[in-house]
Amino acid sequence: MNASSKRNLSKTIRYIGVVEGISYLVLLVLSILKRTTNMDVQAGIKHLGMGHGVLFMLFVAAILLGKKYLNWDNKKSITAFIASLIPFGTFWLDIQLKKDEALITE
Q1: Residue 106's pLDDT is what?
Q2: What is the Cα–Cα distance from 74 to 70, expressed in whole angstroms?
Q3: 3-state SS of 24-42?
């Protein structure tokens, strides 16, 4: 895999992570609203929850691609996975991966 393809894969992983992180935060907000107000957000939680689940599985697959094609070690792969479980973690991961992209060479 050449450097351009590796950078593109890294960007794809970053984008998936950011979208997954946004869906996670919105899901958390809806969950809080459900428990603290009389707002009926059940339909939103149901549909966004399914979408978030799909995004999460896609992100895990992207991590595995990063491990295989970007030569991520176990520490980096596990860190990326843990970042997906922590609110705002994928945004931190995006910053880290962007720094790594600059170092990708032929």
Answers
A1: 66
A2: 12
A3: HHHHHHHHHHHHHCCCCCH
Q: Give CA separation, 84 vs 4, 60, 91, 105, in Å.
A: 26, 9, 9, 27
Say what the alpha-carbon torsion angle 14, 17, 19, 23 is, to the nearest 10 degrees. Answer: -170
And the tokens for 64? Answer: 């595995």
* Pick from 28, 3, 30, 19: nearest CA to 93: 19
Cα distance from N-terminal residue to C-terminal residue, the chain: 9
Percent of the chain topping pLDDT 70: 99
Predicted model pTM: 0.90
